[in-house]
Design a protein that fits this description.
With about 200 residues, the protein is α/β, with parallel strands linked by helices. It has seven helices and six strands.
Amino acid sequence: MKLSQWAKKLGISYRTAWRMYQNGQIPNAVKLPTGSIIVLEDECENKSMVGENNTVAIYCRVLDNASKDNLERQAERLKEYAIARGYQIKHIVKEIGSGVNDARPKLMKLLNQSDYKILLLEHKDRLTRFGFNYIKSWLENTGRKVEVVNEADDDKTDLMQDLVSIIHSFSAKLYGLRRAKKKAEEIVKVIQNDE
C-alpha cells in the first residue's frame, strides 16, 4: 500500500510516516522508480488480504517491433500498479502483434492458464480491438476478471495501423481466392484439352 495509506491505517500523519521512512524505521518500505513509496505488508497480513483472490496476470501488447520500448514501459507501469494494489503477480506476458490478430500464442497460453484471478491490462485494446466483452464474459464465467487500469482511448496511430492490417488481411484473402479460382479454371481447361 502507499505510504499515505499506511500512515492513515496506523493513525499517524503522512509527515511522520515520511520521517520514519527516511530514518529507516519502516523495513518493508520500497521506493518505486516513479518515486512512490510502497509499504509491503507483513506476510501473515498479506496472506489474509492477498490470498488466491488477488493473484494477477499482467498482459502487455504493442503493435510492432518499433514500439518495443513502449512494451517494456507498459509492463513496468502495470507491475508498479499491481504492487501498489497488493496483488500477487503470477505472470507478466509481453507480446508484439496487432490487436485484431486472433492468433497470438502468448495470449492464448495465458487465457488457458487458471492460476490467476485477475487479468491486468493498461488499456482494453491491449487485449483485443474487437470482442473485448466476449473475452471478459468468458473469464468471469471461469472465476476470473479483467481489470483495466486506464479506460481512456488509446493512440490513434495504433488504431489506424490496426485498420490497415484488417484491410490488408481481407485483401489478401480476397485476391488469394481469386487466384485459386483462376488456377482451378486453368487446370480444368488443361484437363479438358487433354481428353
